């Protein structure tokens, strides 16, 4: 179709055009569509295939022309994109005439259609020298001590207990019900029924278990504690609280032999087989943490190699997602930016940088994956769906159907698989040096990781 295209804006990654589509051509396309309809439309009073086009035009002309206009706009936009070699960040933003009289003239075929289309394009990305990337990869071997300690923990968690008379001692298991309050008011998450606690296990707030020593069955005590400053629920951190605690039962720990019989009670062939399984699991945990660390360093290096402006709308979308998550969490925890040692303005600036970094790295990873033909197979996505379904016992079929019918949800599973495959490729290109570290070093979280 002939069209007139005038560039209105070319600023950074934004483009805007005024497009004029001739009325005569739109009308000709509509007439051709009506001619096609002649053989298909059934109208009382006319034999099949004998309905005059003029009559069809009176009945369906406006709706057919509206369809033709929609198709012509899409074709015109595609032509602009193809001729300029654009890759779009978002779908074209089309602004059609709003004046009712002008719209009617176009629909009635009396006037040309003039509209504007706004495009936001992806930047041209020049991939840097990937072989120049040098990375230290922290590695940690599994020690016999780690294995022994883990087996001991598993044994402790499976230690038998039996009912006892009299007062609770350190090591005893006390089943309690409790109601917690701060400044005389009960707080959310501060109560529980029939909760077992092993005295001396340090599984409760510091000071809580010690105050239960000497308690007897059916006795009620007031336990006063202070939540740690670094408590995970920020709205409780550092607060003094009191708990009305009632002991339901007192149980003494039984003997536990860590041997083949114990391993068999857990469904394993022998104690040696149990230790091998524990060693394998710890090794997987170390490997995953090592991978996280080296991936973070790889992304930092990629970010250093590629600095370019990102599409504003993509950055805004990413920022909004981050910001809504952060503010929602702060509202839940009843914390302010002042509590975090910052201001809303400074926090916005920080998260804006993080959003742009994420978008930039996403574009770089996508470009590297495309240039090197890195793809995610349908089998890999299917395995991810099966793994996801397993996380919802009893609802596997519903989860499977959800992903089968929801392309966007399926894409959300495909994306991280693609990213990991590109990361694998990049780690092969980079110079990676394995550096032995301690457990503390491997699992320490640095400031950059906290920010990310």
UniProtKB/TrEMBL annotation:
EC main group: isomerase
Pfam families tied to this protein: FKBP_C, Trigger_C, Trigger_N
Which keywords does this chain's UniProt record carry?
Answer: Cell cycle, Cell division, Chaperone, Cytoplasm, Isomerase, Rotamase
What note about domains is in the entry?
Consists of 3 domains; the N-terminus binds the ribosome, the middle domain has PPIase activity, while the C-terminus has intrinsic chaperone activity on its own.
Any one GO molecular function term: peptidyl-prolyl cis-trans isomerase activity
- The name of this protein is Trigger factor
E.C. number(s) listed in UniProt: 5.2.1.8
Q: Which reaction does it catalyse?
A: [protein]-peptidylproline (omega=180) = [protein]-peptidylproline (omega=0)
User: What does the protein in this record do?
Assistant: Involved in protein export. Acts as a chaperone by maintaining the newly synthesized protein in an open conformation. Functions as a peptidyl-prolyl cis-trans isomerase.
Q: What is the lineage of its organism?
A: Bacteria, Pseudomonadati, Pseudomonadota, Alphaproteobacteria, Hyphomicrobiales
Q: Where in the cell is it found?
A: Cytoplasm
Its main subcellular localisation, reduced to a broad class, is: cytoplasm
Checking InterPro entries in the record gives:
PPIase_dom_sf, PPIase_FKBP_dom, Trig_fac, Trigger_fac_C, Trigger_fac_C_sf, Trigger_fac_ribosome-bd_bac, Trigger_fac_ribosome-bd_sf, Trigger_fact/SurA_dom_sf
In the record, the note on similarity to other proteins reads:
Belongs to the FKBP-type PPIase family. Tig subfamily.
| Chain ranges passing through the membrane | none
Domain of life (superkingdom): Bacteria
Q: Which GO terms describe its biological process?
A: 'de novo' cotranslational protein folding; cell division; protein transport; protein unfolding
Gene (UniProt): tig
Q: Which GO terms describe its cellular component?
A: cytoplasm
Indicate the segments forming the PPIase FKBP-type domain, all copies.
171-231
């Amino acid at each position: 179709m002939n069209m007139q295209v005038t560039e209105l804006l070319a600023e950074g990654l934004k483009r805007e055009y005024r497009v004029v589509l001739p009325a005569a051509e739109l009308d000709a396309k509509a007439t051709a569509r009506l001619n096609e309809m002649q053989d298909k439309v059934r109208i009382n009073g006319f034999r099949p295939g004998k309905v005059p086009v003029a009559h069809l035009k009176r009945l369906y002309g406006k709706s057919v022309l509206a369809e033709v206009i929609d198709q012509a706009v899409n074709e015109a936009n595609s032509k602009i994109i193809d001729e300029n070699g654009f890759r779009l960040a978002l779908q074209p933003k089309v602004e059609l005439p709003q004046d009712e009289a002008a719209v009617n003239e176009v629909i009635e075929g009396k006037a040309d259609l003039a509209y504007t289309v706004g495009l936001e394009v992806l930047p041209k990305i020049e991939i840097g020298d990937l072989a120049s990337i040098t990375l230290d990869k922290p590695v940690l071997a599994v020690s016999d001590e780690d294995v022994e300690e883990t087996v001991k923990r598993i044994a402790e968690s499976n230690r038998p207990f039996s009912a006892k008379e009299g007062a609770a001692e350190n090591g005893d298991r006390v089943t309690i019900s409790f109601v917690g309050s701060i400044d005389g008011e009960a707080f959310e998450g501060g109560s529980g029924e029939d909760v077992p606690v092993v005295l001396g296990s340090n599984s409760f707030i510091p000071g809580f278990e010690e105050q239960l020593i000497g308690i007897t069955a059916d006795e009620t005590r007031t336990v006063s504690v202070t939540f740690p400053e670094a408590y995970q629920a920020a709205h409780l951190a550092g607060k003094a609280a009191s708990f009305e605690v009632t002991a339901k039962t007192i149980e003494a720990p039984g003997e536990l032999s860590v041997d083949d019989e114990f391993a068999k009670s857990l469904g394993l062939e022998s104690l040696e087989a149990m230790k091998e399984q524990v060693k394998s699991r710890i090794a997987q945990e170390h490997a995953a943490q090592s991978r996280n660390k080296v991936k973070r360093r790889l992304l930092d290096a990629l970010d250093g190699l590629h600095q370019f402006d990102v599409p504003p709308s993509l950055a805004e979308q990413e920022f909004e997602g981050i910001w809504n998550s952060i503010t929602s969490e702060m509202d839940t925890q009843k914390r302010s930016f002042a509590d975090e040692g910052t201001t809303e303005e400074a926090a916005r600036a920080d998260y804006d940088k993080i959003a742009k970094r994420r978008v930039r790295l996403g574009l770089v990873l996508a470009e590297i994956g495309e240039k090197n033909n890195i793809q995610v197979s349908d089998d890999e996505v299917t395995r991810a769906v099966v793994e996801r379904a397993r996380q919802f016992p009893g609802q596997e079929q519903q989860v499977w159907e959800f992903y089968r019918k929801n392309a966007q949800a399926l894409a959300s599973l495909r994306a991280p698989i693609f990213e990991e495959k590109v990361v694998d490729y990049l780690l092969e290109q980079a110079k990676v040096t394995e550096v032995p570290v301690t457990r503390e070093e491997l699992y320490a979280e640095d400031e950059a990781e906290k920010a990310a």
